[in-house]
């Protein structure tokens, strides 16, 4: 079978000694200690990822494909906006009654044979999972794709305890084999193309066929053969959940590959880690989200595999079920009447697929397992990292505020408004004693913007920039304006301002406009 060489030397990865093949793949990030803080600002992260042209091509192709499929599926739904309204209402109900719903959920899980644990933070959640696994006397577990366990860095914690966690979702397995980090909440390996995946399999998967090609069918077949043995021998499985139902104690997983079904039915013990916000009040509410989630996430009418389990059923599936309800910053987010809406997220990723910033920079630029627009509002609230000495505080600025993310969100999270709100919070907690350049700039422009007359005079002066423009834009200005033009162009001033156009086209209102301008 043919092999594809992308021009990358065999030793170009982070572990050259383990790369006997020319796979053409490189891992550019290290697994961090804190998955919500990788230690760099968005600006620095984006500067690095923008140089990775292969990643940008991979990402652009994938997001365009998903957007196209989503658009087709949404077009089929005459009641799409009604579903969004209903989902938003359910999520508002959950956040308004979260303590009572959590108690109801715990009672129903327990009544049906499940064991409920509570974790205040990531460390407690990881410790509970590790203790349960050790009590079973095993050192290997299988995992269903889970953002909650990514958030807690569970795999690395288990590794430090001598326990190996095997990711069984194809994309998660690719990321794990490559010692990489996910770059999307639905498609973690979206930054990889199939030739890179082939290289990763050949270099890191012990039982990969030596003549493996980069056709999707062969890659999927190699992964299936590799994972089947692990499914059949696993005694313990770890999962997240898409939603829990307070009314019945039911937990659910929506997935497309069948690996989840294997993990949820074959092992003797199942451990589910769930963020406390992932609830719906009634079983009937699942109907709403089961229509919104697959269409928004992958452009499918329905998930190929939708698994639901309620406690323990004798003789069917795992005979021991542990549910860990994790806070990890969620109650702090809940206390913000505006920012709390981020907790409505159902992890569909549609905001990432439409975001022009994410499409260019990729997920690794955000320095968090929650990238894109939702990550820009969720990560700062989970960490409360809004002070200027915390790199997380830059995430709310990772947006053009174009509003596309809010328009596609299936639960109608007003992401642009929350971004602006969090920007204001970062200013409120600013700790710098000496003002920086932006503080000075805002101080200088405030009097100008307060006065209509001064503003009108200033706009006339700006017309002088037309003398140095090139094709309607200015590429370079002296300091301090160079802080802006160093990375982007400035549009040249138009020949006619809006006020001038209005006076010319509406002469009858000139007197009224002049009066308002003078105020």
From TrEMBL:
It holds the Pfam family LUD_dom. Keywords: 4Fe-4S, Electron transport, Iron, Iron-sulfur, Metal-binding, Repeat, Transport. One of its GO terms (biological process) is lactate metabolic process. The keyword Aminoacyl-tRNA synthetase does not apply. InterPro entries: 4Fe4S_Fe-S-bd (IPR017896), 4Fe4S_Fe_S_CS (IPR017900), FTHF_cligase-like_sf (IPR024185), Helical_ferredxn (IPR009051), LUD_dom (IPR003741), LutB/LldF (IPR004452), NagB/RpiA_transferase-like (IPR037171). Residues 336-365 form the 4Fe-4S ferredoxin-type domain. It comes from the Bacteria. Residues 1-27, 499-519 are annotated as: Disordered. GO terms for molecular function: 4 iron, 4 sulfur cluster binding; metal ion binding. This is Iron-sulfur cluster-binding protein. It comes from Actinomyces gaoshouyii.
């Amino acid at each position: 079978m043919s092999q594809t060489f992308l021009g990358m030397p065999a030793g170009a990865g982070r572990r050259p000694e383990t790369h006997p093949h020319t796979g053409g793949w490189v891992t550019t990030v290290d697994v961090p200690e804190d998955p919500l803080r990788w230690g760099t600002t968005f600006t620095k992260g984006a500067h690095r990822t923008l140089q990775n042209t292969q990643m940008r091509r991979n990402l652009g192709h994938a997001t365009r494909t998903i957007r196209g499929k989503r658009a087709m599926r949404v077009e089929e739904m005459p009641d799409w906006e009604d579903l969004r309204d209903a989902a938003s209402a359910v999520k508002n109900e959950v956040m308004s009654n979260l303590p009572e719903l959590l108690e109801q959920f715990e009672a129903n899980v327990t009544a049906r044979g499940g064991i409920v644990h509570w974790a205040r933070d990531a460390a407690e959640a990881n410790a509970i999972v590790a203790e349960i696994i050790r009590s079973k006397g095993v050192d290997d577990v299988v995992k269903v794709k889970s953002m909650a366990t990514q958030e807690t860095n569970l795999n690395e914690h288990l590794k430090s305890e001598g326990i190996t966690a095997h990711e069984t979702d194809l994309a998660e397995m690719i990321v794990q084999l490559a010692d990489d980090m996910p770059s999307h909440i639905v498609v973690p390996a979206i930054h990889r193309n199939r030739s890179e995946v082939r290289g990763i399999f050949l270099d890191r998967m012990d039982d990969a066929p030596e003549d493996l090609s980069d056709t999707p069918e062969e890659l999927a077949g190699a992964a299936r053969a590799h994972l089947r043995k692990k499914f059949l021998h696993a005694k313990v499985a770890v999962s997240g959940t898409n939603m829990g139902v307070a009314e019945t104690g039911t937990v659910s997983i929506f997935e497309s590959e069948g690996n989840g079904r294997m993990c949820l039915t074959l092992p003797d013990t199942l451990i589910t880690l769930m963020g406390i916000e992932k609830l719906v009040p009634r079983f009937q509410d699942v109907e709403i989200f089961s229509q919104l989630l697959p269409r928004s996430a992958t452009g499918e009418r329905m998930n190929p595999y939708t698994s639901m389990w309620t406690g323990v059923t004798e003789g069917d599936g795992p005979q021991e079920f542990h549910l860990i309800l994790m806070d990890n910053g969620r109650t702090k987010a809940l206390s913000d009447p505006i920012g709390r809406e981020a907790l409505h997220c159902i992890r569909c990723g549609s905001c990432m697929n439409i975001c022009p910033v994410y499409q260019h920079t990729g997920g690794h630029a955000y320095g968090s397992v929650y990238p894109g627009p939702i990550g820009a509002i969720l990560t700062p609230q989970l960490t409360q990292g809004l002070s200027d000495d915390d790199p997380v505080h830059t995430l709310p600025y990772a947006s053009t505020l174009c509003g596309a993310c809010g328009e596609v969100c299936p639960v109608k999270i007003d992401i642009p408004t929350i971004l602006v709100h969090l920007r204001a919070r970062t200013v409120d907690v600013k700790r710098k004693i000496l003002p920086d350049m932006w503080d000075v700039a805002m101080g200088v422009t405030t009097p100008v913007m307060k006065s209509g007359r001064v503003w009108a005079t200033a706009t006339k002066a700006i017309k002088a920039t037309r003398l140095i423009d090139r094709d309607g834009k200015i590429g370079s200005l002296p300091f301090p304006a160079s802080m802006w033009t160093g990375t982007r162009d400035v549009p040249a001033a138009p020949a006619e301002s809006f006020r001038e156009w209005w006076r010319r086209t509406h002469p009858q209102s000139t007197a009224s406009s002049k009066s308002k301008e003078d105020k």
